[in-house]
Design goal:
By secondary structure, this protein is α+β, with helices and mostly antiparallel strands. The chain has helices at 2-29, 69-84, 113-118, 167-180, 242-251, 327-335, 341-344, 391-409, 424-432, 434-441, 455-468, and strands at 57-65, 91-95, 109-110, 131-132, 135-141, 146-148, 163-164, 184-187, 191-196, 202-207, 210-212, 218-223, 227-235, 262-271, 281-287, 296-304, 308-317, 348-358, 369-370, 373-375. Helix 2 runs parallel beside helix 4 and helix 2 (69-84) runs parallel beside helix 8. It starts with a helix and ends in a 13-residue tail after the last helix. It binds flavin-adenine dinucleotide.
Amino acid sequence: ARQCFHALKLVKRDSLSSTHIARCASTATVPRITTHYTIHPRDKDKRWEGVNMERFAEEADVVIVGAGPAGLSAAIRLKQLAAEHSKEIRVCLVEKASQIGAHTLSGACLEPRSLQELFPDWKERGAPLNTPVTEDKFGILTKKYRIPVPILPGLPMVNHGNYIVRLGHFVSWLGEQAEALGVEVYPGYAAAEVLFHEDGSVKGIATNDVGIQKDGAPKATFERGLELHAKVTIFAEGCHGHLAKQLYKKYNLREKCQPQSYGIGLKELWTIDEKKWKPGRVEHTVGWPLDRHTYGGSFLYHLNEGEPLVALGFVVGLDYQNPYLNPFREFQRWKHHPSVQPTLEGGTRIAYGARALNEGGFQSIPKLAFPGGLLIGCSPGLMNVPKIKGTHTAMKSGMLASEAIFSQLINENLQSKTIGLDVQEYEENLKKSWVWKELYAVRNIRPSCHSVLGVYGGMIYTGIFYWLLRGKEPWTLKHPG
Ligand SMILES: Cc1cc2nc3c(=O)[nH]c(=O)nc-3n(C[C@H](O)[C@H](O)[C@H](O)COP(=O)(O)OP(=O)(O)OC[C@H]3O[C@@H](n4cnc5c(N)ncnc54)[C@H](O)[C@@H]3O)c2cc1C
């Protein structure tokens, strides 16, 4: 028996060491997830020896990262204020997409409140809001049936007064307005690095280097990025921006909030049979193919853009419990539901994509202002989660940020403690605005979906506490986990 035991130990040791070798060998062949120099410093990499790393620097008053609804509204508001006060300010905006709006992916049903505040004459200016909502439908899906749910006035799902838009077109239009006002818009430039002053405040950003091989080595065409320095840098990267993540750490911005949670939104654009096309119709569903413990649902919007177009999509909370669930497959299954399939039959999918969404809501909003910088829009997660709407809140946050920045820029008696301006008024003003009230009122809806009743528990909670009390219940639910 002793000999057997000894033999077994030897076998185990041999097999362990061979597994270890196999593991080492496999990690050696796995490519690096990123070769970015902020993760793999170039000064320790021989391939970069002797490469000229000098960068040109430009000075602006305000630099904005990201030309989404938030960044563009901020840029526009700054220039509007400068014009009203006859001041010259330099506003530079960098966008990683090759064209403004090219990386935008949304639903989108737009609440025009912020647009109305930004451009009261948006209709005369030709804003591409071509489809007012005329019909609002909500349903619970079972495998075979659709149970209609009445949309009572005051519920988050009410869409009357809103517009169905192609958000990419709307963003592109905002870009034109910004340029007309004198904003320097730089599409095709990603902000790759946050720059800091010696006192720790944000100095600006550096745009991405170009001419780098996949493995991180410089090509013969290598060119260094550009530094953009500013008194204040606005970060408007949208959900899960990589610069915002660095800032959270550097300034401990998430110290007092709950962790952010995320969802994935899959979206397609179809041209359909004209007979099935109902411009202005908005449809949402919950239920099948998701079980009640998986947060998510669908949208189907009939656009009026000169051809029979529908925008459809499926959002799934990424805290789903079934590790085998595949959000994309669930979306495909949903399209085959008897209440959905007839609309798409005979149609053609002309575009598709996916984008992350913030789902933490009010509880997960970090600190928004820090020396030299501000976070706006979906970057810090200012989205109304049950409505799946964040464009109007993103725009308003950008406008409020600019108003606070502008009052510091023109304050001749301003004595800043840091080289980069610390615009705390932005956060204070946001807390006094309708954005804060709106996000506070819906704060408990998403976490209420974690009871035994799942999503249906959330619907009951919404009926009682949101519809009747407008979110005034004196408690705030936590996100689980
Ligand atoms: C599937 C889906 C459906 C939605 N439906 C609706 C809806 O019906 N109604 C509604 O109001 N909202 C909806 N939303 C949410 C809405 O799209 C967002 O709230 C809104 O786009 C947020 O605007 P933003 O400017 O903060 O961010 P974004 O729109 O994400 O814009 C950020 C911009 O920054 C750029 N960027 C990011 N990082 C960098 C960098 N380092 N350097 C340079 N540029 C950078 C990006 O390319 C992008 O253009 C939906 C979202 C999804 C995903």
